[in-house]
Write a structure and sequence with these properties.
Helix content: 25-40%
Keywords: Hydrolase
Protein name: Peptidase M20 dimerisation domain-containing protein
Largest sheet: 5 strands, mixed
Shape: elongated
Organism: Cryomyces antarcticus
Number of strands: 5
Strand content: 5-15%
Oligomer: single chain
Order of helices and strands: HEEEHEHHHEHH
InterPro entries: Amidase_Cbmase, Bact_exopeptidase_dim_dom, Peptidase_M20
Structural class: alpha/beta
Family: Belongs to the peptidase M20A family.
Distance between the termini: 38 Å
Radius of gyration: 22 Å
Strand order of the largest sheet: 1-2-4-3-5
Length: 249
C-alpha cells in the first residue's frame, strides 16, 4: 500500500474519514496542519477521550500501520451507536497528518505542532523528500485540507488518547505472543550528512590519490551499525544521493 501524506490518495482517505464519522453523528474539525478530529457528543461538555492514529503510509508499505488505529476507532463509534451507548463526556477519533514522516521529513510532525513542540511555520515549510518543490502548506491547500482551526492542544484538548497499533517488527510473532503493551518508544535523531570528495577518473587515478566520498560514506554507515550494536541501540541509513553519479568518475 502506498498512500503518502497529502497525496491524492491521502485526500481520498481523508474524504472517507470525514464522510464516515459525520454519518456516525460526529462533529468534524480540521486544523491548520490537516489533523482531523471527529467528536461524538457526551452527556456533558469537556475534553474528549480520543482513539486514533494516521492514514498515511510509507512509500511501499503500511497496510495496517496507523490505519488499524483509525479504523478500530471508527469501529468503536459504530459499536457505541449500535448499542445506543451514551457517554458521560465526548469521545472522538483523530487522524494525524504525516505521522510517518515519509514524504515530509519529520515524523509525528502535526501531532508535534498540536503538542506545542514544533512551530507551525517550520512544519508548514517542510519540503517533500526526493527533490520536489511541494511543502506541507502547499499540499494542504492543494487537497483542500488546510483547516482554519489553530493546531493546538489548547484549542483541541484531549482528556486521553488511545491507539491500537500493529507491531512494526517481528518480536511478537517470533515469541508467539498475540499482544504487547507499549511502555515506551525510541528517542531518535535524524541527520543529513554531506560527505565531500573529489571527482577523478577511475581508470587512471590510483587509490592513494583518490578522495572517494561514497567509499567514506559506506565506512560511516558500517560504523554507525557497529556503534549502535555496542550501545544496544538502532541505526539506519535510508537515503543516499550521489553526485555526479557516473560509472567512470
Amino acid at each position: 500500500m502506498s498512500r503518502l501524506s497529502l497525496s491524492d490518495t491521502d485526500r481520498t482517505a481523508r474524504d472517507w474519514f470525514a464522510e464516515t464519522t459525520s454519518a456516525l453523528g460526529c462533529k468534524l474539525t480540521t486544523d491548520a496542519m490537516g489533523n482531523q478530529f471527529a467528536v461524538r457528543p457526551g452527556l456533558q461538555d469537556g475534553p474528549p477521550t480520543y482513539a486514533g492514529s494516521h492514514l498515511d503510509t510509507q512509500p511501499t508499505g503500511g497496510r495496517y500501520d496507523g490505519i488499524l488505529g483509525v479504523t478500530a476507532a471508527v469501529e468503536m463509534l459504530r459499536v457505541l451507536n449500535d448499542n445506543w451507548v451514551e457517554t458521560a463526556y465526548p469521545v472522538g477519533v483523530v487522524n494525524w497528518t504525516n505521522e510517518e514522516g515519509a514524504r515530509f521529513p519529520i515524523s509525528m510532525v502535526s501531532s508535534g505542532v498540536w503538542a506545542g513542540e514544533i512551530p507551525l511555520s517550520h512544519a508548514h515549510n517542510l519540503r517533500e523528500v526526493g527533490g520536489g518543490s511541494a511543502t506541507m502548506k502547499s499540499e494542504l491547500e492543494r487537497i483542500g485540507y488546510l483547516g482554519e482551526t489553530p493546531c493546538s492542544h489548547e484549542v483541541m484538548p484531549m482528556a486521553a488518547h488511545f491507539e491500537l497499533h500493529i507491531e512494526q517488527g517481528p518480536i511478537l510473532e517470533a515469541e508467539n505472543r498475540k499482544i504487547g503493551i507499549v511502555q515506551g518508544v525510541q528517542a531518535y535523531r535524524w541527520f543529513s550528512i554531506d560527505v565531500l570528495g573529489a571527482d577523478c577518473h577511475t581508470g587512471t587515478t590510483s587509490f592513494a590519490h583518490r578522495a572517494d566520498a561514497l567509499l567514506a560514506a559506506s565506512k560511516m554507515i558500517l560504523h554507525s551499525h557497529r556503534a549502535a550494536t555496542a550501545a544496544g541501540a538502532l541505526a539506519s541509513t535510508g537515503i543516499l544521493t550521489l553526485r555526479p553519479g557516473s560509472t567512470n568518475t
